[in-house]
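TICKET: design request
STATUS: open
ATTACHED STRUCTURE:
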């Protein structure tokens, strides 16, 4: 957990959504673009369906692994303000989700 409201994780699978809900998370943010890791990477659609089936809110905010914009940070801040907490954000390794979180916190002051 980066704070009481948000944790980050590396790439999740659709099957992990039920475990995330059981762990107490109420929302998931997917920061990984579809097929970034090739055809075996779970798609946004499959992740969203599994998250909703597990009773989680879900948001898709795909960002590049090498650069995140101020606009994307604002979108992350908006999601963090709107989604039920705690939130679990993921990408390939968890790093870009963590960077977006840090940028969003700076925007919120």
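STATUS: resolved
RESOLUTION: sequence designed for all positions
ATTACHED SEQUENCE:
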């Amino acid at each position: 957990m980066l704070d009481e409201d948000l944790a980050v994780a590396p790439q999740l699978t659709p099957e992990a959504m039920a475990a995330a809900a059981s762990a107490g998370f109420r929302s998931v943010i997917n920061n990984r673009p579809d097929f970034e890791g090739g055809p075996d990477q779970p798609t946004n659609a499959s992740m969203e369906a599994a998250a909703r089936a597990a009773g989680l809110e879900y948001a898709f905010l795909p960002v590049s692994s090498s650069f995140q914009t101020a606009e994307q940070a604002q979108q992350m801040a908006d999601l963090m303000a709107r989604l039920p907490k705690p939130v679990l954000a993921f990408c390939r390794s968890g790093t870009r989700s963590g960077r977006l979180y840090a940028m969003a916190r700076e925007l919120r002051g």
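CLOSING REMARK: The chain has a mean pLDDT of 95. The radius of gyration is 13 Å.
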